[in-house]
Design goal:
It contains 7 helices and no strands. It is mainly alpha-helical.
């Protein structure tokens, strides 16, 4: 609950309140990855790049090789202005994506990308 509320507060621009909720969520369950990922997003919105990087390092310790962590690395690199590094992190995130071929993998293998099969909106 504190994680979701902290994320909501981040989206509303209430960084101090969001930080308080996310830190409480971390104290209640230090292993819960969503709390930590939302803290990275909060640090990015605050432009506290170094603290965001430290949060990502802690995530890597808890979930090495996790696709969302690679995506957060890409976001941080992009916001820091390093498009080349962001592209590499996003490629890694695509490669780590569970459940089938990603668009990047389709381009590498020559296989057609998977298309949604449901009705169109």
């Amino acid at each position: 609950m504190h994680t979701a509320y902290g994320h909501h507060l981040t989206l509303r621009g209430r960084a101090d309140d969001a930080e308080r909720e996310l830190l409480l969520a971390r104290r209640l369950d230090p292993q819960y990855l969503h709390s930590r990922m939302h803290m990275v997003n909060l640090r990015i919105t605050q432009r506290r790049w170094d603290q965001a990087a430290l949060e990502i390092d802690a995530l890597r310790d808890l979930a090495p090789g996790a696709m969302p962590v690679a995506g957060l690395c890409g976001a941080l690199a992009l916001f820091r202005g390093d498009a080349a590094a962001a592209r590499q992190h996003y490629k890694q995130a695509c490669a780590l994506q569970p459940g089938g071929l990603s668009a990047a993998a389709s381009r590498r293998t020559g296989a057609p990308p998977r298309r949604p099969t449901g009705p169109r909106p």
